[in-house]
Design brief:
six-stranded mixed sheet; mainly beta; disordered N terminus; 6 helices; six-stranded antiparallel sheet; 24 strands
């Protein structure tokens, strides 16, 4: 791809330093290894005496952008027309080593004032380790490039989704939420050992004094979710069967079910937050909501990180006081998405009841560490997955 030309009207080192273009313009060239670049790419000429970027620094990191800055010998700046930026995911033992040949990682930018912002959802993903190196380049009259040596390699880690990105997910989820159905209980399915305090495996179920305790959320859902691996809570469900109005008899998590009246966990003193929207290569879509008692540690964690929902009026989960119901609290959930509700405080088992369900344990429906389908147009946004 042709690289944009730099305005030739700047003639001196001083004026070139002062009058660099203000807008970063990134184009792509085919990817290649840093070692042996000159021999593999005919558009790059022999190295000449161009300054090598020193003290490279990465700042202002988001889920899909970063700022980069470095030091250079000012005496040779008048020869520089472009910067080459080599950006790569850092491989780990469990990394996916497949790298599509049509997705370049080397960027070429016109000379601009530093620091400059590198942005692009198609090559940056949230919560991902990257390495970056820079070299300066001079475009020759024959269209080839003379380049400097590469800078040192710098590592950085991209951030979570911001509230702006989560609001985009929220808006997508609202489109398919469907009409609201009434419900009365939250429930949690587990194996019998989880609820049996005399079981030898009792210590593994995170309970204390007959209470279920919050644990750190797993990595299911969107890769950029700010609650994965950070928020502590207890998973509950509230979806009901359309024909019975009761919780389904099947579950992927176990045949024993703890049920608790909805008002114990969800009431006017509880704040409600949107956490995520995803699917797992199926037609089912999941919405993660967070219930946090006002002022609790979970509530403080969510404020500023997650979009807050009005408990009286939203598309997923509502708690309203109905006069015709004698002032009682009435609860509704969205019909067309599967809600995963995270309650951020301990729950005393004495506040509910445990019974065995009669349905099947559908292990394939489990969302534990489930990976989001990056190709789904319904639940993805235009940010690196």
């Amino acid at each position: 791809m042709e690289v944009p030309r730099v305005d030739d009207s700047t003639s001196s080192p001083v004026s070139r330093c002062d009058d660099m273009m203000k807008n970063l313009n990134l184009d792509l060239i085919q990817p290649s290894d840093r070692e042996g670049d000159n021999s593999q790419d005919s558009s790059i000429a022999e190295k000449e005496d161009l300054p090598v970027p020193q003290n490279v620094k990465i700042t202002n990191i988001t889920c899909d952008s970063f700022k980069i800055n470095w030091d250079m010998d000012c005496r040779a700046k008048d020869h520089i027309t472009n910067y080459f930026i080599d950006l790569n995911k850092k491989e780990h033992n469990n990394s996916n080593k497949f790298k599509h040949k049509d997705v370049p990682t080397k960027l070429v930018a016109k000379v601009v004032p530093l620091p400059m912002t590198v942005r692009g959802h198609w090559f940056l993903s949230p919560r991902t380790d990257y390495t970056v190196a820079v070299q300066t380049a001079s475009k020759q009259s024959d269209g080839n490039y003379a380049v400097s040596e590469w800078s040192e390699i710098i590592e950085f880690y991209t951030a979570d989704y911001s509230t702006v990105h989560l609001i985009q997910l929220l808006e997508k989820a609202e489109v398919i939420a469907g009409r609201m159905l009434r419900f009365s209980v939250f429930y949690r399915n587990q194996q019998n050992d989880y609820f049996n305090k005399t079981s030898p495996s009792c210590g593994s179920r995170e309970t204390q004094d007959n209470r279920m305790l919050p644990t750190v959320k797993d990595n299911s859902g969107s890769h950029g979710s700010p609650i994965s691996g950070k928020l502590e809570g207890i998973y509950f469900s509230c979806n009901t069967e359309f024909n019975t109005g009761k919780p389904p008899q099947d579950s992927p998590y176990g045949r024993y079910r703890f049920e608790i009246q909805a008002e114990v966990l969800f009431n006017p003193k509880t704040n409600l937050y949107f956490g995520d929207f995803y699917c797992m290569y199926t037609a089912y879509h999941y919405v993660i909501l967070v219930l946090a008692p006002e002022g609790s540690p979970g509530d403080r964690f969510c404020k500023g990180r997650l979009p807050a929902l009005d408990i009286l009026d939203n598309c997923f989960l509502t708690c309203t006081q109905e006069e015709e119901e004698g002032g009682r609290l009435v609860f509704h959930h969205a019909q067309d998405v599967i809600l995963e509700v995270i309650y951020t405080e301990p729950v005393d088992l004495a506040l509910g009841s445990v019974e065995e369900i009669q349905g099947h344990q559908l292990s394939s429906m489990s969302t534990i560490n489930a990976k989001k389908d990056p190709s789904c147009k319904t639940c993805n946004i235009s940010v690196g997955r």
